[in-house]
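Entry 14. Ran structure prediction on the chain below.
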Amino acid sequence: MNSCPKKAVLLFTVLLIVLLAACKPLIQRQAKRPADSSLHASASFRRAVYSDQSLVPALESLKNLLKERVSKEKVPFIHPELKAVLGNPLNLELIASRLTFPVQEPKINSFRPHLAEYALDCFLGTAFPQTAIYQSEIALDHEGDISLSAYIGFITTIIKKTAFQLENAFSGLTAYEKELLISSSAGFIKDMAISDKAPGDDQSRLINLASRLRYEDMGRALEGLRWIFSIQHIETINEISRGNHISVHPDEWSHLFKGDFIFIRNTEIGLVIVGGPGPNLYAGDAAVIIDLGGNDTYLNNAGSPVYEWEGHKINRITSPVSLLIDLQGDDSYISTRLGSAGSGILGIGILMDLDGDDLYSGSILSQGSGYLGIGCLLDMGGRDRYTVEEVGQGAAFFGYGLLFDSNGDDKYAGAKFVQGFGGPGGFGLLIDASGDDLYRAGVKHGSTYGTRDVFHSVAQGAGWGLRGKSAGGIGVLQDLSGDDIYIAGNFSQGTGYYLGLGILRDLNGNDLYSGSRYCQGSAAHLAAGIIIDYRGDDSYIARIAAGQGGAWDLALAMAVDYEGDDRYAGGDLSLGAAAQNAIGLFYDGSGTDRYRANPKGFGFGGELAYDGGRGAANLGVFLDVGGSNDLYETEGLENNVYVKRGIEGLFIDE
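Output, C-alpha cells:
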C-alpha cells in the first residue's frame, strides 16, 4: 500500500541529489563569501539609533536620499554592492566582510599547500559575486614521470583556450572600436597616473568603450586557468625540476636571456621558456616562463600580456595571456615597462613566486594590477619588498587586480592608486596573510587641496570614481596577522570617493595607522568607506579632516576597532562625524582608550548647506562600549555619558 509514496520519495531524493551536484560549483562559489559571525558593531549602531526616536527619522531620510541620488547618477560601473550599502547603511560592515578573505590567520597553516588555489577562489568569489563561474575541470592527467614536452604542450593548450575565452569579453566591440580601445589605453592610464584625469573627449570615449566589455567572461577565462594555481601543478613543476635536462642556448635569444635554460621556443601562444635551477637573467618579454630555481633577475613583462609598442601607443596585443612561475630563489622583478609583474593589461597576467626573499620594482600598472583585464601576483613565501609608482599592488581600472602575499615581514611602497585600489570599473585586492608589514603610499603627488607636505595617495583600501564620468570601483586591503604600520596621504585606509567603496580590514596585531584628509574609514560624494581592526593595541593618526568614520556629502563612513587599548588622534569631522547629508559611524569595543580630536568630531552632526539641506539630516554616531577608564581630551566628553551633538549627532561611552 505504501510502495508508491516510498518510490516517490526515493525519486525526489535522487532528483535532488542530481540537482545539487549540477549546482555544486555555484554553491561552492557562494560559500566563499560568508558573513562575519560577529558584526557586533553593526548591532550596536542599530541599537543606538533605534533606541532614540529622534535619530530614526534622520536615518530613514538619509537612506531615501542616498537611494534617490544613486538612481539619478547616469554613469557606468555603479557596483551593486555599493548600491546595497547606500540603500541600507548599517549593513556596511556585513558587506565589507563578504568582500574580504574569509579565513583567519591561525587556520591558514592547515591548508597552506592549497593556499594559492584558495586565494584564487576568494578573489573570484569577491570580484564576480553575481556571476556563476563554474570550476574548470582542466588538469594534466598522467601516470608516472611527465616529460617536459608534454607539460609544455599542456600549458600551451590551456593558455590558448583561455585566450579564446578572453576574446568573448571584447565581443561587444567592433574591430575598429577594439583597435581604438587598445591604441588609446597607454595615454589614458598614464594621464590618470599623473593628473587623475585624461583629456575630456578621450576620457569619455574610452570609458564608454570599456563599459561595453563583458567582464564576467574575464572571470570565466581566469577560472579556466585554475589548474595553474593548484598543488598538483606545483608538484608537477617540482617533478620536472628533479629530472635530467639538457641545457639549450639558442643564439637568437642570447642577447635577451642569459643563464641556464632547458627550453626556449616560439609557439602559437608566444615565446615559452623553462629556466634551469641556476641564476638566470630575463630581459626579453615572454608569454610563459617557468623557472626551476636560483636567484633570478626579470627585466621584462614578468607574467603580463605581451604587446607591440609603436610610438607612444600600444599597437597590438601579441600574447593576451601570460604566465610566470618561479619555483625558488631570491629574485628581482624590475621594470619601467607599462604593465609588469603580474599585470593584466588588456588581457590576463599571472606571476607566482613560490619561495624566496624577493624584490619587486615597477612603474605604472604593476604587481597584481588590472587594466581592461586581470592581473594576479601571488608570492607564497619570504620577506619581500614591493615598490611601484602608480596603479599597482592589488589595483585596477576597468578590470581586476590581486596581490596575495602568503607570509614574511614585507614592505610595500607606492605613489598613488596602490595597495588595494579600485578605480572606475575596477576591483583591486591586496591580501597579506602574515608577518609584521609596512605599507607606505604617497610622497610623489602633492595634495589636491594644496596642503603643504601632504600627499595625494588614494591607497590602502580605496574606491575612486570620476565625478560625472564613471562610478568608482572597490578597493580592499586586508592583513590577517602581524604588527603592521600603515602610512598614507589623502584618500586612504578604507576610503570611498564618488560611487566607490574602500575597505581596510586588519585581523590581528598591534598596528599603527597614519593618514591625512579622508582616511581610516571615510567617504565623500555618494561613496562608502570602512576600516575594521579586530585585535591589538592600535594607534590611529588622522590629520586635517574627515577620518575615523568621517563622511562628507551624501556619503557613508565607518570605523570599527573591536579589541585593545587604542589611541586616536583626529582632526575635524572625525570619530563618527558627518556633514552635508552624510552618515559617519565610529565604534570601539573593549580596552582602555585615549582620544584627541577637534570639537566637530565624536558623533557630531555637521552643517547642511548643500542644496538647501536636501530635505534630509546628517547622522554622526560615536560608540565606545568597553573600558571604564577611557581618556577624552575634549571638554564635556567622558566615561559613561550619553550626549547629543550637533545636528543629529550622538556620543555614547558605556
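The chain has two domains: 37-101+441-653, 114-432. Will compare against last week's run tomorrow.
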